[in-house]
Each structure stands twice: as structure tokens, then as C-alpha cells.
Amino acid sequence: TVSLLAFALTTTFAKADPKGCDDGEIVIKFSHVVAATGHPKGDAATLLAKRVNEEMDGKACMQVFPNSTLFDDDKVMEALLLGDVQLAAPSLSKFEAYTLKYRLFDLPFLFESLDAVSRFTRSDEGKGLLKVMEGVGYTGLGYWSSGLKQFSANKPLLLPADAKGLKFRIQTSDVAEAMIEAMGGSAQKLAFKEVYGALQTGVVDGQENTWSNIYTQKFFEVQDGVTETNHQLLAYLLVTSTDWLNGLDPEVRDQFLKIADEVTQEANARVAEVEQKNRQNIIDAGGKVRELTPEQREKWVETMKPVWDQFKGDIGQDLIDAAVASNK
Ligand code: LMR
């Protein structure tokens, strides 16, 4: 009876705890740095786990660790190779140590809309870029869009010249650094989980991110306002270890890849709506959003676009041309 009771309890708890995996199931741990809900990546990760856990029950089990609770984006790349996690989705700005090709996605004012991003990522060039890191052990499973980025600072920013002398937190991206320098500001690379504190204590004056990150991380609470620049893309690479993927039973792998692909499409189709909602959430919560006139926006474009020249050698003109062509 005791063991029966113990068995009943374990089963009950296993069901009640979404992280509980059964013996014999392949455990797929997914670590990311953003909010678990109300955010394009958080929601996509949850959806992926739900589908894997329902449809691959008995074969595989996915556990999601949001909010940098397990690893930050630097550490997660090592953790993938060590087998401590099997999935991650760092932004494309964070792969500089592994490939310089992804600098493409960081070029300011490259993509005019999220639809253009979808067209590019579905093109041969976009798909080819999923595989550029296989030599160093990583395979991209898909691109998860997160939105276009906006600037915020501790003073009003209407023209790039307003950023002169200010220090901005950036991701680990040399393109972002060049962009901030072109504005006359200085850049500091910081992990995502440190941004709120750095803004609050004045370690940095400003930052650039999507509506969803600015809202869910509450950055707007410690900034004067957010300027709607839409200057650059934030998108993620859903990434795994090439060895881990190749080691899966072919049938399991195919089922998993099919689910990942469907979730990618479904999540990307919702991003624009989630972003607009979080923009409105900022306003409803008392945050200030500044819109630019076409003339003001043109100044941002003029200031930042020359940065492309510095990186076209790393990226390749052919890829830049293909990305630009996706705007039409
Ligand atoms: C950042 O570091 O600002 C972003 O890459 C965080 C994220 O994952 O959206």
C-alpha cells in the first residue's frame, strides 16, 4: 500500500508539475532570457513545449527556463555544447563569436517591416544562414522574430544628435556599437538581465529594444521616454547542438523538427500584434512614447546607414542585396 500510495503521489505530482518528465523520455531543456508570457519569445517557447509534451509524450519532454533563471545568452551557448540544455533562442546579435554573417540582421534600417523579415528568412539565403555554424557545433532550427527596436533614454530623443554624450546599453554586437558611435554616444555591452538595474542606477543613460522587452522588463519606468525609431530588427535563432540533433532517432527528430517549424510560423505570425499590444501597454502604464516626423526619421537613417559599409565585408554584398530585395 505504501508503495502504491507513493506511486499515486508521484504520478499526481508528475502531472501537476509541467516540468516532470517520465523515465525514458528525451529531456529537452530550453533556456531563454525574456518574460515567460506576453512576449513573442516567451510565448513561442511555451507553445513549443506544450506541443512537444502533448504530441511526443513518452518520447520527449520539454522544460522551459525563462527570464535568465538558468543561463544568460553567453553561457547558454556553452551549455548547448555541454549538453546542459538542448535548445536556446539568443538574438541574432549575440553570435559574433561563432559567425560574422549574422551581422546582416543588425544593419540599421535594413528591413522595413516584419513581413520583409519573413520573406528573407524563408528565402534560400535565409535558410542557408541556419547552417553556417555547423562547423562549430550549432544548427539553427528557425528564426523567431521579435520586432523592430526603439530607443529609450533618460532624456527626450528626437534626433540622433540628442544622443550625443549619452551611454547606451547594447547587446554583444559590434554593429550596434558602431551605430551608437555614429550618433555620438558611447556603447556598453551588458547581459539582458542587467539592463534594468543599469538604467535605474545611471550606469547607462539609455538602451534600444523592442516594445515587448521595454514593457515586460519595465525599462520604460526608469527612462524619460521611448522614441519610435524602428531602427533595427530583433530576432532570435532557435538553436541547438548539431551533435544532439544528429544523435536523435530519425523518427523522433523529424517529428520534433516538424513541430518546431510549425511553432515558428505560428509564433512569427503573431509578433506584430504582440508588439503593438506592448506598445499600448507602455502608454497605459504611464510611459511616454515619442513618434518621429518623416523628416526626423530621415535624420536617423542618414546617421546610421553609413554603418553598413563597415560590415559589408563580413557579411557579403550578395546577402545584403538579398535582404534589401525582401523589402519590395
Ligand atoms: C537583449 O539582450 O536585449 C535581447 O537579446 C533580449 C532578448 O532575448 O530579447
TrEMBL record:
Residues 1-16 form the signal peptide. The keyword Signal applies. One of its GO terms (cellular component) is outer membrane-bounded periplasmic space. InterPro entries: DctP_fam (IPR018389), TRAP_DctP (IPR004682), TRAP_DctP_sf (IPR038404). Keywords: Signal, Transport. Pfam families: DctP. The keyword Signal applies. One of its GO terms (biological process) is transmembrane transport. Belongs to the bacterial solute-binding protein 7 family. This is DctP family TRAP transporter solute-binding subunit.
